[in-house]
Amino acid sequence: MSELSPINGHPKMASAISDRAFSRIAAIAAREAGIVLAASKVSMVKSRLTRRLRALKMSSFDDYLDFLEASGDRTEMNNFISALTTNVSHFFRENHHFEYLAGTILPHLKQKLANGGKVRIWSAGCSNGQEPYSIAMTLLKAAPDLAQKDLKILATDIDPEVLARAKSGQYFGSLTTGLTDQTIASFFTKSHQDGEDTLTVTPNVRNMVSFRQLNLHADWPMKGKFDAIFCRNVVIYFDEETQIRLYKRYANILEPGGWLMLGHSERLNESVTQLFESAGVTTYKTKQTISSPAPIGAHESKGPV
Predict the structure, then answer these.
(1) Pair 69, 209 in one domain
(2) Residue 25 forms part of a structural domain
(3) CA nearest 88: which of 190, 159, 32, 189?
């Protein structure tokens, strides 16, 4: 069956994605975000992109893809990528990284600051903001005076919707997972908004974090080096070539001896192990810098589920 006629003024949705349409979707996802979509993901893809068809009042995936590729509408391309990716996170997720930050990395950062240097940390693929705020809270809990030091956390994501949540610093329901009563008392204020008990990050934490929309695989506007990069549960959804080029770019933008934290299912490819040394569980330190490779693609994402 091809185009389906509207009923009551609303287009009836196609019941399935054709092999050709899925191949087009997979090709765009790979080109724009480095995401590999296996054929087993067709049901997930159909479910998520159906929302975009409804929003645009389109009845077929082919029509949607024609529009997506011909219009040059970057907003809709962002919506496409966002629909295929998942922003699942919680506070202090994979807590061993925050323990390592406080116990091992922080003394080096404090010494650098004491010597007149500056400290920069990057949360790449920050989703709803729990990761960068967890970084800030970890540092402030161990050393409250850092709020007055030249220490900044850059938090980036491609999805403007999740960035808006992150910038607000407001969390409720399942978004507060991972917080203890002590952490809430120290770093949040409580309120009741729109029928929800809401926690708002305190200004001393929020002031340490700058949120920016960034295409991880395109040009990076940052000019300085980072002392640590958290890029967790992001690269697992990229193909091997994309992962390798991204790791090389990370090595180049990290300070010598800087730290890279990956997700629990992610490991460095053998071809980049000469650039890093293992420093703990999914934690690595740079051994040398290299010339910056070309951008990988166009968009960053958390990856499909």
Answers:
(1) no
(2) yes
(3) 159
